[in-house]
Predict the structure.
Amino acid sequence: MNFDIGFIFEAIPRLLEYLPMTLMLAVGSMILACVMGIILALIINNRIAVLSPLAKVYISFFRSVPTLVTLFIFYVGIPQILPEFTFIDAITATIVALSFKNAAYLAEEFRGALNAVDSGQMEACLAVGMTKWQGFRRVVLPQALRIAVPSLGNYLIMLVKESSLAFTVGVTDIFAQTKILASGSFRFLESYIAVALIYWGLTVLLTMLQGKLEKVMSKPYR
Amino acid sequence: MLKVNGLSKHYGKHEVLKQIDLEIGRREVVAIIGPSGSGKSTLLRCLNLLETPDTGTIEIDGFAVDAGKLKKSDAYALRQKSSMVFQHYNLFKNKTALQNVIEALVVTKKMPKPDAVALGAKLLEQVGLAAKADSYPSMLSGGQQQRVAIARALAVNPAVILLDEPTSALDPELVGEVLQVIRSIVHTDTTMLIVTHEMAFAREIADRVIFMADGSIVEQGNPQQLFGSPQQERTRRFLSSFLSSSSLERKEQHDGTGS
């Protein structure tokens, strides 16, 4: 049988060299998506004129378009009409595309989490003289984030996997490196099993971290 | 010190407050009583603009706002003059008892942290909860949470404390400890406006009692007057419904011994 189990264990450390790129794409997109998602959620929850319908259109669009299409729009499409954007490198384009898409989903998660915080919390902030922004940042948002953590963890795990799309625009992450390794050695199955094991391990690790984070953040509420 | 003129508020077609005029002197303790839906809580919540009145002016400690032309900065400035104790405590759930008390000191009054902590500890001691400084609200009983909320309201050194049915959400056996804490701060330095269903308590602590019904102030006076010889029919009806349960008990006892 043409299957070399040893190759998998040789491949894993060589692929792990590219893990920082994968993590940067995933974590970078996650942070940007969270910021955008919170802003979208606030716009919709507070029914801000003009912006609120626009936010809903945004969410509808980016939830409907395949991630790969979004990525190509940003990397290949936009520089066509706006040549000054050709400086956008593949890494930036990937992070922007992934965060624009995930912000649309996260907006809904944040909306739910923010609505789940009792309105009396903000009233108490205002009553002691804090501004709405201070109350939001110091009291409402921390409570909403705690509610959102389980689903945020899911989105981060999905982003780790989605970041593999970056190979289509020429970014060398662990998946792109796997393809290089596979075609150079003709050990396709071994290479892809190796990268699959890495994604699995990474997800197990992230799930554990999420559990720890949930525990820490729930401490005040038990 | 606190002056309200022509305050009114609608919810849709329902008129919750009808042209309320009210004046409260420094260090005065005023209790507002009345049936549910009479507008007592709404009046209180208009005073710190948690509800926006439709018309009227509010002046607290020399700072006046006009409901007709309300600016955001006015709202924040007016709220600096008061603090509130809520029916459901509304302690910041993500903060410890001490952090709850000092939050506004650090964030809005820009007090140095060590000073704020010292003041916070003192206030927690005053409400009998020094040992619970590092406890989160979820670990405290309702009565303890409300006592922390009172310490939080005192911390900002407000010109007036607004207490919105502070014991209504409490289990009966916890009411006493909260009333005791309120009693201890009466006539210290702060002006107090308290909406309550505890008639005996209102009678005991208040300098003046206001009876509200259907969005208007029906009658007001010192507790002896208002509870002893109410002038208005509406007030008499309300008070008799409140007293009926206790007088019934007495009547039963009387009947029992008489036969």
User: Anything to note?
Assistant: The two ends of chain A are 57 Å apart (CA to CA). The interface with chain B takes residues 118, 120-121, 123-131, 134, 138-139, 142-143, 146, 219-222 of chain A (CB under 8 Å).
